[in-house]
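Private note to self, pasted from the team thread so I don't lose it. Backbone tokens:
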């Protein structure tokens, strides 16, 4: 008996694309039993409700029912949802859109993609709902805490050409940050170091060894004990700018991770991290045009505790 041809992915629902899990060889009585064991944080009742709503299907588009017998070496697609999700009370702004790209000005506190306790309240899902573009994907990332320019690709056929710009470091990115002023430091300067996983797991730190991160840093203006800095990452390590600024003794204002972890600061919307992805520029690999996009947001030296 021939195997049915694999169908296209299930459609996006309310801005959320399907998640996929492969079923290994095994002797679970039902697919539902496997899913409950594979995802212990999701109760059986949740899986049964998803199946009842038709939100769990196999790779051939056949619905997975609560009593369907287990079958190894099969892909199962499901739609993730959250019982409770915090609302991010800030809005993104579309700066530019054509047939290939969507460029967005992201507010502080909004994650770029679904993760952890955020699904609908992410930039990607908000944009899919707002623009009706199911194929939208970010071609680079910035931290949840960071505001500013994020670029998305629309067409799957040209997405990798844009990703390659960042792999080859051909996209010029400039950030701005508000941080303490230290007269003893000389600017402009270049910080090169090795950044590795720290403690807890979501923090990073500098370590001995060959550098894997490089940032160019300059001062734009000074006002009393604070200064506005221009940061140009040559590499793109996670939390690179935050780690480098803290290592210089000038941690970015309102940084809840560096140099020390600040407990209970995650939901304090009155204290955004004073880091802004100000501009991004590149030669478009599809159209050949020179592209430059700039955030409309500004960081304030006078009131660094509020969003600009």
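Design output:
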């Amino acid at each position: 008996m021939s195997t049915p041809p694999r169908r296209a992915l299930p459609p996006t629902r309310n801005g959320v694309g399907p998640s996929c899990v492969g079923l290994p060889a095994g002797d679970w009585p039902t697919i539902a039993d496997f899913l409950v064991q594979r995802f212990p944080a999701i109760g059986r009742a949740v899986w049964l409700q998803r199946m009842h709503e038709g939100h769990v299907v196999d790779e051939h588009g056949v619905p997975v029912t609560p009593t369907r017998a287990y079958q190894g070496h099969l892909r199962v697609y499901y739609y993730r949802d959250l019982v409770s999700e915090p609302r991010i009370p800030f809005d993104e702004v579309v700066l530019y859109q054509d047939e290939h790209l969507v460029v967005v000005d992201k507010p502080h506190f909004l994650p770029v993609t679904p993760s952890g306790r955020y699904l609908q309240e992410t930039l990607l899902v908000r944009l899919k709902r707002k623009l009706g573009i199911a194929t939208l994907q970010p071609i680079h990332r910035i931290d949840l805490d960071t505001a500013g320019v994020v670029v998305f690709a629309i067409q799957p056929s040209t997405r990798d050409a844009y990703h390659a710009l960042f792999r080859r470091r051909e996209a010029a990115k400039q950030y701005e940050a508000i941080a303490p002023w230290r007269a003893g430091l000389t600017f402009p300067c270049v910080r090169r170091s090795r950044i590795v996983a720290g403690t807890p797991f979501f923090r990073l730190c500098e370590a001995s060894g060959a550098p894997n991160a490089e940032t160019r840093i300059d001062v734009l203006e000074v006002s009393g004990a604070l200064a506005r800095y221009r940061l140009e990452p040559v590499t793109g390590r996670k939390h690179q700018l935050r780690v480098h600024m803290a290592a210089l003794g000038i941690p970015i204002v309102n940084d809840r991770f560096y140099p020390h972890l600040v407990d209970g600061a995650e939901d304090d919307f009155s204290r955004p991290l004073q880091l802004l992805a100000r501009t991004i520029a590149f030669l478009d690999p599809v159209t050949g045009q020179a592209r430059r996009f700039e955030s409309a947001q500004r960081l304030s030296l006078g009131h660094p505790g509020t969003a600009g």
